[in-house]
Specification:
Strand order of the largest sheet: 11-10-9-12-13-14-15
Bound molecules: nicotinamide-adenine-dinucleotide
CATH superfamily of the largest domain: NAD(P)-binding Rossmann-like Domain
Mean pLDDT: 94
Low-confidence stretches: 394-400
Helix content: 40-55%
Number of helices: 16
Strand content: 5-15%
CATH architecture of the largest domain: 3-Layer(aba) Sandwich
Number of domains: 2
CATH class of the largest domain: Alpha Beta
Radius of gyration: 24 Å
Number of strands: 15
Distance between the termini: 67 Å
Largest sheet: 7 strands, mixed
Length: 476
Amino acid sequence: MNKKIKNICCLGAGYVGGPTMAVIAFKCSHIIVNVVDTNQQRVDAWNANDLNKLPIFEPGLDKIIAETRNKNLFFSTKIEKNISNADIIFISVNTPTKTKGLGAGKASDLKWIELCARQVAKFAIGHTIVIEKSTLPVRTAEVIKQILNESQSKYSVDKEKKTFDILSNPEFLAEGSAIQDLLNPDRVLIGGDNKKAIDSLSEIYENWIVKEKILHTNLWSSELAKLTANAFLAQRISSINTISVLCEKTGANVKQVSKAIGLDHRIGNKFLDAGPGFGGSCFQKDLLNLVYLSESLGLNEVAEYWNQVIEINNWQRKRISKLIIEKLFGTVGGKKIGILGFSFKANTNDTRESSAIQISRDLLEEGAFLIIHDPKVNIKDIEYYLGPNQKRDMQIDSETKGYGCWSFTDNLEKIYQDSDALVVITEWSKYSQIKWDIASKNMRRPGWVFDTRGIINIDEVKKNGLKIWVVGNGEL
Ligand SMILES: NC(=O)c1ccc[n+]([C@@H]2O[C@H](COP(=O)([O-])OP(=O)(O)OC[C@H]3O[C@@H](n4cnc5c(N)ncnc54)[C@H](O)[C@@H]3O)[C@@H](O)[C@H]2O)c1
């Protein structure tokens, strides 16, 4: 008989841990779900009475939290106690790219994973199933196994013997549609070698997902499949972005090209939108992981192939910044530029690896005054990437030398006043509804609109006397 799960502990209350556990709690009212985190501020935000203050914005998340929180879903910093009580532990902590030491710039930093394994080793009681939910380099389960096995001799003396099973259960949710993805996933992937443990985990998902969608593989296939899925998705974005520039140079239109190729069922129509380059915490990190793995196995051609996907992404961002500067007569010093959107995509407040960071930095470097708008992003996150929000006078001063400055507004209309250009970086739906007559009246001439997402009504912009450049379509 496989173990019946009554109590879950999830280590890490982030973009994955929070929504994933909320949906499990929502669909499994018979299971107690404890989400724990070392970050007290984040836990407090998950427990906020005002659901607009949750640390993560995801459409539909607030309703699920309202249904489950403090019934069978709990957020706290009580890590030790909740590890001890758990039948099953999900490790959902961050695994960013290493910034120093061996593998810096490529390998994932596994220090948080290792710490979790050590905490589980110390505080787990009896038999515990440990799940890798974080995205991890292939064969990380081996490291976790070793740490847990060592603990059997160290911590089991005079007590009930501790035993562990380790499974890989990578998360495929996409930010911005996380709740829908979790409620109705394309598949759930479980990698492992112990059938009873796999069945225990499957049973949780079977509360709302049909068995046919729950895939069982070995541990290493599961770990590699997650990296591969993200690499393929990122590759499609870089591929279409290389076509976007060909379109701009030849008079083709990338939307028409995407549509024409997407109707081929072998290609499919998803992930074919040209844009300012992919962002988010995962694509680049997981590609780098694949590059590192390939290099460490001596597969340099494979490493180079995947590395090129990242190179193209960086190039797309740089070419957009350069193009904006060129169109504004080769200088943006002292010019006011509105940045529309700072999150890496619509419907999320996540700014990690957002293309807005690089494009803003490039424009600041050239002395621009940026006024940034985003409906969900916290100003502190922008500050983290662009430096302090200097309260310098934002008046137009063409003599201004040196590094530019930025300010933030959540009032879209404020962004138009005296702007030389507006740059659409995130595809928030409100940007496609901009009233161009109002924007145009308030902007300086020649007023430019740079649409890096292809969501703006071109005719309206032109009708109101502004100039427009659209990714994959060029100056129109
Ligand atoms: N964000 C996504 O869309 C996404 C999708 C699929 C997979 N993933 C993967 O999931 C993992 C988590 O990503 P995320 O975006 O949720 O990260 P995140 O940074 O939002 O959250 C991680 C959380 O773990 C906490 N933490 C760190 N060490 C801890 C410990 N020892 N005990 C308890 N909590 C601890 C941190 O304080 C943080 O709140 C990563 O490996 C990522 O690659 C992310």
